[in-house]
Amino acid sequence: QLEELEKEVLTCRRCGLRAGCQQMVFGEGGPGLLVIGEGPGADEDRLGRPFVGAAGQLLDKILAAGGFDRKTNAYIANVVKCRPPYNRVPTAQECAACLPHLRAQLEILKPKIVLLLGATALHAVLQTSEGITRARGIWQEREGVYYLPTYHPAALLRDPRKKIDVWKDIQSLVAKYREVVDPGHTSPYC
Ligand code: URA
What we know:
By secondary structure, the protein is an alpha/beta fold. Helix content is 43%, strand content 14%. The chain has helices at residues 2-10, 42-47, 54-65, 92-109, 118-126, 132-135, 153-158, 163-180; strands at residues 28-29, 33-37, 74-78, 113-117, 140-142, 145-150.
């Protein structure tokens, strides 16, 4: 199903981003937790995989601390599938144009828990204008799915003081995952 959808998205020209990037970055991982970022950067655009640059390496470490990885129990996707030029934040129109693809991924993966990385993911997925600083760490339930907004790993690279809050969010994520997905979930640190 995901492969079918990926083929469909390959031909998407709903916004102008595809014309300015090298390739569409669909997403990757396994069933369990869904992690949603903003959009591909230069490394992701070159390799066709999400979160493979500096922010991606930090994301892998953060997820690993909670017992998650993209090979087994976490799927990594982005709000927009094509790299915005100069890594600018995707516009509301670009996010809206791409959102049906993400919704289709959600429909197939049927995650019970979704981790939203940064303001773009928070705004696009939950259709809110709340700031990430206020919203982070607070679970929001929509139609039986639990969403947890947290800081984007790129924000942690710019301001390492935010790491303590993300650590709290990961502990909360692990607790919720044990509650609603897998009581036997193990993680090295919490
Ligand atoms: N930042 C994102 O939001 N997504 C990626 O895939 C990489 C960096």
